[in-house]
Amino acid sequence: MIRGRRGGVWLDSLTMMLRMGFLIIVFITLVLLVRSYNVAVIETYETEALVFANAVIYSPDAISYHDPEINRVYPAIIDRTRFKPGIEPRLDEVFSYGDTNTQIAAQMTLRPVGETPITIVYNRDRFDAWYQLASTSYGALGPGGVEKREYAFPVLARDQAGDLTQADLDFIIVMPRS
After folding, report:
1. What mean pLDDT is predicted for residues 8-12?
2. 56 within some domain
């Protein structure tokens, strides 16, 4: 079949329009895929706080009961001879965040059933400043703010005689958002 000049131009124009339409659809699809894949912020505060709390509970050199005869740490058994005010320098050695810890601070309170609670603070200077900021309504906003996480773990408190008492170990952990 022989085409005329008009038919050839019309067919070429129709083919070019179909190609342009297909390219526009592909371009729009790519733009939508890129926009949906864009991840702006990844927040790890919850994970960091839980890792710190679990490290305190399960570390052999921190507050957990460590049996020297078999070299074993008993999970969630807190040694009351270790958990007392004055242990903060030891915690600074065990959990080293550098010379000036600007990463994390925590208050830990051991609440044995029927007894007086015992509180120790890791990185006290930063904790006092950050906790005040976190307690305000604008404390957790923006890069200059502070994240506060609170946890309570059921534990056993072991005294010097070896007697075990049910207790709760409360953590208040504060971290800067920057």
Report:
1. 74
2. yes
